[in-house]
Design goal:
Layout lengths: L13 E5 L5 H4 L1 H9 L4 E6 L11 E4 L2 E4 L11 H13 L5 E4 L4 H14 L4 E7 L15 H13 L4 E7 L12 H13 L3 E6 L5 H15 L8 H10 L4 E2 L12 E2 L5 E6 H7 L3 H6 L3 H15 L10
Parallel strand pairs: 1-2, 1-6, 2-5, 6-7
Antiparallel strand pairs: 3-4, 4-5, 7-11, 8-11, 9-10
Length: about 325
């Protein structure tokens, strides 16, 4: 099994986009590394938590798109995109910018993606979700962090690339407090499969080049990020790559409620982004929203109208 089961044309150019903020773009790194090894030029973008307007040395390509290289600086102690670009320069020996998407609504985010699609002749976009909340339609027991994931999924769905995919990883980690229902995530996956939108499953293997480089890159980025600002999802993936299983403390924030780690944590589940976007009960309203806050309001209205389903556990 490889990380990427997608059927891509030889030499296809691929944009990996982190769904939602934080470290989701790092969750997509194994995909980028394996595709590069197969001869596919890849590009990485992040719907960023970094204070982008405080960054010095970056280049604004659109009002919502900042190109970040190792030359970029920020007084904030959180700048994982810059650190990943520095890893590529210092360790891999290549110049590799990371493109940061501002916290805009769907239209602004799509504009930024379309700029990258045109500028770099992108054939396929893969929106990568660290966790499963991006696949939810809106009436599940707990949606995790739905607004930013939904913006990125919908922007991928409406962008100009010929192929548009959604991938989620770190299954089982999200919602250590037991409010996010992974059974409901599997139900959404079943619906997508019934529609013909399932594209396969991949996995990070710790002994493969993509697995080894992912561990090295994550360790490099974490070494330059204060402990409390490091990603719980990525920390969980690293623990799974070391063979951890069950409730495991992976981060200072997880001491009271450790996430559940297993080999499921290392899987990547792939679906058509168009189908994932159209599942959402707030689809039309989110497309028309002018701000991220309005997307959140559309989600809450949809939950009120549809009703929230009770939590369901996996019966195994």
């Amino acid at each position: 099994m490889t990380v990427v089961p997608l059927n891509l044309a030889p030499g296809a150019r691929v944009l990996i986009v982190g769904a939602g903020g934080g470290f989701d773009f790092m969750c997509g790194l194994p995909i980028a590394l394996e595709l590069e090894e197969r001869g596919h030029p890849t590009f990485i973008a992040s719907y960023s938590f970094t204070h982008l307007h405080a960054v010095r040395g970056g280049i604004w390509r659109t009002p919502g798109l900042l190109e970040v290289t190792p030359a970029a600086e920020c007084d904030d102690d959180y700048f994982p995109e810059r650190h990943l670009s520095a890893w590529f320069a210092d360790v891999v020996g290549v110049e590799r910018p990371i493109w940061c998407l501002g916290k805009g609504a769907v239209a602004e985010t799509r504009e930024s993606l379309d700029h990258l699609v045109r500028q770099h002749r992108i054939d396929a976009v893969v929106c990568v979700d660290g966790g499963v909340d991006g696949i939810f339609r809106g009436d599940e027991a707990d949606l995790g962090t739905p607004s930013m994931d939904s913006v990125t999924v919908l922007a991928t769905h409406t962008c100009a690339a010929a192929q548009r995919h959604y991938a989620c990883t770190a299954f089982g980690v999200e919602g250590a407090e037991g409010t996010v229902s992974h059974a409901q995530a599997l139900e959404r996956m079943a619906e997508l499969t019934a529609q013909g939108a399932f594209r396969g499953v991949g996995a990070i293997v710790p002994t493969d080049p993509a697995g080894r480089q992912f561990v090295d890159a994550a360790s490099y980025v974490f070494s330059r990020t204060p402990p409390l600002r490091r990603s719980i999802i990525v920390s969980s993936m690293l623990a799974a790559l070391e063979g951890a299983h069950g409730r495991t403390v992976v981060h200072e924030k997880t001491r009271e409620r450790p996430p559940w780690i297993s080999l499921l944590t290392l899987l990547f589940w792939y679906f058509e982004a168009d189908a994932v976007a159209k599942l959402k009960l707030f689809y039309k309203e989110a497309l028309e929203a002018r701000t991220l806050g309005e997307v959140g309001e559309a989600i809450e209205r949809a939950r009120t109208l549809a009703g929230v389903k009770p939590f369901v556990s996996i019966p195994i």
